[in-house]
């Protein structure tokens, strides 16, 4: 056989393969528009739970375990949710099966990219913001960017947890910037990146403003906070949620509750009806996540279920939340979201805001990180080792978006189950599912290679 014949037959095989084989049903991807999320052309509200079976101290990945995933996805469906938040994953593990089970159940993932070994240490933020840390963060992005039901990445969780450690904020914001840079540099889907804050009264407004101020490349895609101030039988007006909704009414990016569910009294989850009410919260908030799915030792009273091996038993909280969700469907219209709010002003230094840098400055992306932008993060470290001591006690600072990569990511697909989606922003390949881009590319490559080595292949 002649080279040309080989090439031709490979070409024919590729052509015969034709349209990629039917892919499994996927969900429409979630993207940001104004101060809201959209999926499949419709406003998307987070209706979910925080999921960390084993508890926060376990440092375990609940979605690498197919058995517990299967056990719990059935319960998530029963509860009627569309999102889970996971706090820790092993970025070297395989998540295909659990992510598909979640997708099949209509459930998205909001994922923390940090874990106790690879994270910003609030006691030494400069030292812990380093190349080794970002490599782990980027490896997590590599592992999850391919799933259509990856909703969002959290750049940090409660790093600032009181009135005295706001000096950590620039390191959180730098990490947040670097994550967006990485997604852009790698040409991944534009998965929203933002921070999950502790609700600290003294710096609530400052921190939200800080994550949404400064140049384009340095502002978050969304902001979330953990709010336990609504304790049943409170109503919207009894709590400060009504004042918060007013205070954040001109906030320009999506806002949601990454944790809620005060356990002081019997939980009836009254907050749910306010959260999805167009006259109360939907113009400003995009829903929230109830803390938490499983009852845990050392954190008693928050769980919806008791889980042990294969068995899961509902606590009264499970039924209460299920009822609350069923009585408060997501609004059908756009919920009063806004597209014309302006980014925030950076907060001024004060007794409650201890950031010395100028508004337009941040820690610079650590030396050597650009190689990940160019080549990918490489081997995922998993839940071993640790990066917190790998840096120096001081970092270089400079223009906030210096070195940031601000373009290159693609819009998502509408999913096979979804309707019309936001238009791709441009570029011929934007919006195409990876399968459809790869098949022809691979074929092209095979043909090219076979022509180059063709000489030795002549039979
Ligand atoms: C609302 O904003 C005002 C002024 O900025 C602030 O003093 C107040 O504490 C805020 N209220 C809440 C509940 O965040």
TrEMBL record:
One of its GO terms (molecular function) is 1,3-beta-glucanosyltransferase activity. Residues 397-414 have a biased composition (Low complexity). GO terms for cellular component: plasma membrane; side of membrane. Residues 1-16 form the signal peptide. It is a lipid-anchor; GPI-anchor. Residues 329-360, 375-426 are annotated as: Disordered. Gene3D superfamilies: Glycosidases. It comes from the Eukaryota. Residues 337-355 have a biased composition (Basic and acidic residues). Its EC number is 2.4.1.-. GO terms for biological process: fungal-type cell wall (1->3)-beta-D-glucan biosynthetic process; fungal-type cell wall organization. InterPro entries: GH, Glucanosyltransferase. The chain crosses the membrane at residues 436-458. Pfam families: Glyco_hydro_72. Keywords: Glycoprotein, GPI-anchor, Lipoprotein, Membrane, Signal, Transferase, Transmembrane, Transmembrane helix. It is an enzyme of class 2 (transferase). SUPFAM superfamilies: (Trans)glycosidases. It is found in: Cell membrane. Belongs to the glycosyl hydrolase 72 family. Splits internally a 1,3-beta-glucan molecule and transfers the newly generated reducing end (the donor) to the non-reducing end of another 1,3-beta-glucan molecule (the acceptor) forming a 1,3-beta linkage, resulting in the elongation of 1,3-beta-glucan chains in the cell wall. This is 1,3-beta-glucanosyltransferase. It comes from Bimuria novae-zelandiae CBS 107.79.
